[in-house]
């Protein structure tokens, strides 16, 4: 960038021990809707991570000895402050990530607020266990204590939403944290740092180090004073994190990718199922780990489903994320757009049929968005189960629709991938719904709906979709260390 240009750029700073620090080098961050560099993100490494871990370690004794109620009040205050600035956060998230302003306003930021409120409340309601052994004259009980400095690493698709889903339980339980958001979407985390002091979060309790996974992320994963890592991102990165953290025997929570099936039986209520399945395929440009990307439709309704599904998908307007009539914004990066487009090309080369979207329909973009990373919602039919489009996570606005005959067959095919995160089942037969839900290898099964979440209950994946669960009780267990104490009287 030229000098004049660079002055206009937003420059982020690391947040360590309650203070902002510039970094010696920076990474360019793009506005996906225009293709312009608009922000510079610190390119932190070992040194910055070292300082952040030290600050978190120093803050731990005081923060961990506060009562849950004191911590709860601070979390609630932080929730109020983010909510007060909801519009500014939503605008920033949309500009940084490419998602529509509507999605940021109604999903991302409200959920970030809710994450703090939810854990502020839930942390007050845990009880420990107690057993008695009268014959031995003993009482046993468990106690739980925060672990220490938690390393939190989050992806670019739901930036503040997923980062706060980790920060909130970690600090509610009395840990201190070093967080590393995705280098592609760091702005809202930085904005949140500016509110911490006012909320009453003591310096060093929440530290945010910006940078790449290879430098800042690995430094955090390898740091001997960080005993637990909570990671959300791709399966490949999780493998690397597992390897790098193994010498330290760290506690890991891994929330990874998916290749989520929707199973639609011929007795499904299509008037509900079709709009919901379009949403589950294309919400947030298909960049949600829970998005549907394999749709199995029972043969009797297959052609009717396909016709109505494509018509519904075509209603989703792609374009400027700030336009309230737009449902599909920009993809995160040029490279990612290329990767997603390549999947469509590969499917075509294998003989699959593209019914709408990429290469089929015109994409009309406003003048300011010509260089943005846009792609139309794309529906592919007649794809083989072995095809990479049916096996690999695409993470874009692309979904495959195939026919099936029997319940037995579809369960086998739905389970025939390495992932196991989320599935949806559509049927009005309640017995079948339970039967199928029990047999699917999937951490979450939604029947006759999608993305309805109760944060109390476990969230997470099976197989290559992850290890561990997050939720009221699950996050509490992850972020605390349990001890069994025996008293002889
Ligand atoms: P990614 O794995 O590339 O990156 C995630 C984070 O890890 C980023 O902050 C990145 O900088 C960091 N990272 C990368 N390499 C690292 C390393 N060697 N050591 C430490 N940190 C490293 O994932 P992404 O592309 O940002 O996100 C998309 C992926 O996230 C998809 O696979 C999606 O399914 C998954 N995801 C899962 C969930 C879930 O809850 N299961 C939710 C959202 C996204």
TrEMBL record:
Function noted in UniProt: Catalyzes the NAD-dependent oxidation of 2-aminomuconic semialdehyde of the kynurenine metabolic pathway in L-tryptophan degradation.
Keywords from the UniProt entry: Cytoplasm, NAD, Oxidoreductase
Lineage of source species: Eukaryota, Metazoa, Chordata, Craniata, Vertebrata
Organism: Gymnorhina tibicen (Australian magpie)
Protein family (similarity comment): Belongs to the aldehyde dehydrogenase family.
Superkingdom of the source species: Eukaryota
Aldehyde dehydrogenase domain span: 25-485
Example of a GO biological process term: retinoic acid metabolic process
Compartments where located: Cytoplasm
Pfam families linked: Aldedh
Family matches, as CDD domains: ALDH_F8_HMSADH
Protein name listed in UniProt: 2-aminomuconic semialdehyde dehydrogenase
Gene that encodes it: Aldh8a1
GO molecular function: aminomuconate-semialdehyde dehydrogenase activity; retinal dehydrogenase (NAD+) activity
Catalytic-site annotation from UniProt: 255
Reaction catalysed by this enzyme: 2-aminomuconate 6-semialdehyde + NAD(+) + H2O = (2Z,4E)-2-aminomuconate + NADH + 2 H(+)
């Amino acid at each position: 960038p030229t000098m004049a240009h660079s002055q206009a750029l937003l420059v982020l700073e690391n947040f360590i021990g309650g203070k902002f620090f510039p970094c010696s080098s920076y990474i360019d961050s793009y506005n996906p809707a225009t293709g312009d560099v608009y922000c510079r993100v610190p390119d932190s490494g070992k040194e910055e991570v070292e300082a952040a871990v030290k600050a978190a370690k120093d803050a731990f004794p005081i923060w961990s000895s506060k009562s849950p109620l004191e911590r709860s009040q601070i979390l609630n205050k932080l929730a109020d402050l983010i909510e007060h600035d909801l519009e500014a956060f939503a605008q920033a998230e949309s500009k940084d990530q490419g998602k529509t302003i509507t999605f940021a306003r109604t999903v991302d930021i409200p959920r970030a607020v809710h994450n703090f409120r939810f854990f502020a409340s839930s942390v007050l309601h845990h009880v420990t266990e107690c057993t008695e052994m009268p014959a031995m004259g003993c009482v046993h009980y468990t106690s739980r204590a925060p672990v220490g400095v938690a390393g939190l690493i989050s992806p670019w698709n739901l930036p503040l939403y997923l980062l706060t889903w980790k920060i909130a339980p970690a600090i509610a339980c009395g840990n201190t944290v070093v967080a590393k958001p995705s280098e592609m979407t760091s702005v809202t985390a930085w904005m949140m740092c500016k509110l911490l002091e006012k909320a009453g979060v003591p310096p060093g309790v929440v530290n945010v180090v910006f940078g790449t996974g290879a430098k800042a992320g690995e430094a955090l994963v390898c740091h001997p004073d960080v005993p637990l890592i909570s990671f959300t991102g791709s399966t490949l990165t999780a493998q690397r994190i597992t390897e790098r953290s193994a010498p330290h025997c760290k506690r890991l929570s891994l929330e990874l990718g998916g290749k989520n099936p929707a199973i639609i039986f011929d007795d499904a209520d299509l008037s509900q199922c079709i709009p919901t399945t379009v949403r589950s395929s294309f919400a947030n440009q298909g960049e949600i780990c829970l998005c549907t990307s394999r749709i199995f439709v029972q043969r009797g309704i297959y052609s009717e489903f396909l016709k109505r599904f494509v018509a519904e998908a075509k209603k989703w307007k792609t374009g400027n994320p700030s336009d309230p009539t737009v449902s599909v914004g920009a993809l995160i990066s040029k490279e990612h757009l290329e990767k997603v487009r390549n999947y469509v090309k590969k499917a075509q080369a294998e003989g699959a049929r593209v019914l709408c979207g990429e290469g089929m329909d015109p994409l009309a973009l406003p003048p300011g968005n010509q260089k943005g990373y846009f792609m139309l919602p794309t529906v592919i039919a007649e794809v083989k189960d072995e095809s990479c489009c049916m096996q690999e996570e695409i993470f874009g606005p692309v979904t495959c629709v195939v026919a099936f005959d029997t319940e037995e067959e579809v369960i086998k095919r739905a389970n025939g991938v390495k992932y196991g995160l989320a599935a949806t089942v559509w049927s009005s037969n309640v017995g079948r719904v339970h039967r199928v839900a029990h047999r699917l290898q999937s951490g979450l099964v939604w029947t006759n709906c999608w993305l309805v979440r109760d944060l109390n209950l476990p969230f997470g994946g099976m197989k290559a979709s992850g290890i561990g669960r997050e939720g009221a009780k699950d996050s509490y267990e992850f972020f605390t260390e349990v001890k069994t104490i025996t008293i002889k009287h």
